[in-house]
Amino acid sequence: MLTQAPKGTSDILPSQSGKWQYLEGLFRDICGRYGMKEIRTPMFEHTELFVRGVGDTTDVVEKQMYSFDDLGGRNLTLKPEGTSPAARAFVQNGLFKEMQPTKMYYITPCFRYEKMQKGRYRQFHQFGTEIFGTESPVADAEIVSVAADMLEAVGMKEVELRINSVGCPVCRAKHREALKAFLEPKYGQLCSTCQGRFNKNPMRILDCKDCQKIVEGAPMMIDYLCEECSSHFEEFQSILKDMDIPFIVDPGIVRGLDYYTKTAFEFVSTKGMAQGTVCGGGRYDHLVEQIGGPEPPGVGFGMGIERLMLMLSEEGIEVPEEASVDYMVITMGDKARSFGIALARKLRKKGRSVQMDMMGRNFKNQFKYANRIGAKKAIIIGDDEVAAGAFSVKDMETGEQITVSAEDTEQL
Ligand code: ATP
Ligand code: MG
């Protein structure tokens, strides 16, 4: 028990974190190209934020939240997603009063009490982006474009973009009636959660993983769009074409969070994996209002980092590691060791990554170790070399070896 992390969580070990850092660096870089700046919000929020923001008939709020009372009696929840906290921060800090749009990105753990499966965990991580303050479909397309750039940059090929429009409160009212009429005769077959949703929020039933068979053939939101939503969706598609981003219109995309309006999209694996959605997002024009703020609309996505890694490995793509060892300093003898320690410190101050043995390995094994850790070069120092005021530098890949004078370490 003590040496076992809680179910659904995992450690990112030192041997794996290089890959995470690589992906994080890439994501930051791509967001920067779109003028997005990072936001970091707390790991927990008032529970009410998610109940209002994500929606009280969603799976996330009904079944998956890690909520608790703190010692001061406040009901708090570990964040299950990043958009509601970002919207809360947008309001609380008065960002809506500044020049718009407000573009931001985040990299965060999320917490959901879910049934553990491959690609589905209780603590997972997301890359996310948000653009607040504009209804323009250019923003929707830029959000999609960030995700597409990220997937392309890591070399993912077997993925497709599926888009839909889930309308606005005006057109949803009509769809809701049609959907209820369709579901009414099947009410008895719905799972108990969905029976509870029938009157409160029947569209949620379309997204229920247990009721997929029952909703086959149900009326689709896309056929009920009002003029404004319909022309927004048309324009969004035409901008995606301008951007040369291929997509498929999929009327079945509903998304699991209540705050979505108009645009909804997913990037899905074409390999038919069970948890094949790597990225999901859309527009949320009433979220800020819903949590008690002013009216600014918004659009964003969340991309699951563990899922991204799983899908990359399914495609046989190796994520490069950021960290690399420039030099392994290999020494033989006490004088050499002391010289090597001083040299290593000097090189590290210059920004080089340098390793030295601290396990008492002999000369041969220090070389083996240099190979194992992937050192680019070995600096070889013996007592004789110290006396002669020079040492050797060996390129571990080509085997080429040069002599460097102790006075001339600037070139390293
Ligand atoms: P799903 O339909 O797979 O449950 P969702 O609609 O709940 O996904 P979002 O809330 O939109 O997902 O989250 C965005 C992304 O975060 C997902 O596309 C997925 O890549 C990832 N994600 C969501 N839940 C989990 C989880 N429990 N474990 C790992 N990754 C997750
Ligand atoms: Mg889910």
Q: How does this model look, in words?
A:
The protein is of the alpha+beta class and 412 residues long. It has 2 domains: 14-168 and 226-314, 2-Layer Sandwich (BirA Bifunctional Protein, domain 2), CATH 3.30.930.10; 325-405, Anticodon-binding domain (Rossmann fold), CATH 3.40.50.800. Helices cover 35% and strands 22% of the residues. An 8-stranded mixed sheet has the order 1-5-6-11-10-9-7-8, sandwiched between helices. Strands 13-12-14-15-16 form a 5-stranded mixed sheet, with helices on both faces. A 3-stranded antiparallel sheet has the order 2-4-3. A hairpin with a 5-residue loop joins strand 15 (390-395) and strand 16. The longest helix is centred in the first third of the chain and has 20 residues, at 14-33. It is elongated and about 90 Å long. The two termini are 49 Å apart. The mean pLDDT is 94. Bound molecules: adenosine-5'-triphosphate and magnesium ion. Adenosine-5'-triphosphate is lined by residues 81, 112, 114, 119-121, 124, 126, 255-257, 275, 277-280, 302, 304, 306-307. The site of adenosine-5'-triphosphate has 20 residues, from strand 6, strand 10, strand 11 and helix 10.
Compile the SSE list and pairings.
Blueprint: H1 14-33, E1 37-38, E2 44-46, H2 47-53, H3 59-63, E3 67-69, E4 75-78, H4 83-92, E5 102-111, E6 123-132, H5 137-153, E7 159-165, H6 169-183, H7 192-200, H8 227-242, E8 248-249, E9 261-269, E10 277-283, H9 287-290, E11 298-304, H10 305-314, E12 327-332, H11 334-349, E13 354-356, H12 363-372, E14 377-382, H13 383-388, E15 390-395, E16 401-405
Parallel strand pairs: 1-5, 7-8, 12-13, 12-14
Antiparallel strand pairs: 2-4, 3-4, 5-6, 6-11, 7-9, 9-10, 10-11, 14-15, 15-16
Helix pairs in contact: 1-5, 5-8
Adenosine-5'-triphosphate binds at residues 81, 112, 114, 119-121, 124, 126, 255-257, 275, 277-280, 302, 304, 306-307.
